[in-house]
Each structure stands twice: as structure tokens, then as C-alpha cells.
């Protein structure tokens, strides 16, 4: 059996779609993610859903309120792995690394939000742990943010810088088409 290529969808929770989350880029990112998710499901390939549970009571992702719930289009199905986290990195305080190694993961394809926070943090760890990691740039998005010196940076600038941070050092940034090409439709794998 071919070693699995795992799709990881990071923090696609209801709060990410709320206005108070901020000004974002890549308005088509959810559509791109949903297409990738459908392709992985049709191929019976492994999928990981990551969900942020904040420890800050004022957060959009504080447990037991609607912001923390998965968006309808990204609800995990039975057999799909769910990882809950309270820090940006999905590998910290979770069984994610163990699970990926048990799957004998060939590669990890990462999509989600936000590019410069949970996506970047998780991808850095994946690369450092030796996983062959890809980021689909068009299937991620970021929010505008002030830089360290107080200059306002657009969501596009934040997104682009984050992808630049990851490219080559921790991961390979790819297009959606390249992601589809990594997982031929006929590939099958068990989902645990």
C-alpha cells in the first residue's frame, strides 16, 4: 500500500468567519479548502482537523460558545482525526506526531488559518520533526496586523511573509493543482 498523504485543515471554526476576527485576505480560500477536503474524502485518504480551544475567556475560540465550533463545510466525518489545541502549534500537547507516525505518513499537506499563526507554527514543527510538508498558499488566509515597529500590514502582506518564512526551510508552498497531483484519485488508505 502507498504511504498516505495526510490533509490537515487548521482552525476552520465559526469565529474565523466573524467580523471581529479582522480584515483578511484570500476570500476564496474556503472554497479551495473544501475542494481539497472533498478530493481527500473521495480518495479515502487520511484527514486531520485541528481546532483551537482558547484559554482566554474573551477569545472567539473560548470553549462552549459558537465561535469554537467547526464551520459547517469543515465538520469532521467519522474516522477523521481531530486534534484540539490551546496554543498555535497543533503538535504541542497533542498526539499528532504519534498519530502521523503510526500512519507511516509520506507527506503532510496543510491548509487553514491563520497563515502567520497556527498554520506557520504547526508547519514549522512538522518540518523540524522531519515530515515532508506542503502548504497550499491559496487554501490559507491571514488577517491584517501591525508589525513589530507599529506599521500596519495588510492581510496579503502578512500572508505573503508567512509563506516566505516557511518556503524551503520548513515546507514547500504549492498550488491547489499541485496538491491534487500529489494525491491521485485512485489512491486509497485507511482512515483511523
TrEMBL record:
GO terms assigned for molecular function: hydrolase activity
Domain Isochorismatase-like: 7-176
Assigned keywords, A-Z: Hydrolase
Name the UniProt record assigns to this protein: Cysteine hydrolase
Presence of keyword Acyltransferase: no
Organism: Marinomonas profundi
Lineage: Bacteria, Pseudomonadati, Pseudomonadota, Gammaproteobacteria, Oceanospirillales
Keyword Kinase: no
Gene3D superfamilies cross-referenced by the UniProt entry: Isochorismatase-like
Annotated InterPro entries: Isochorismatase-like_dom, Isochorismatase-like_hydrls, Isochorismatase-like_sf
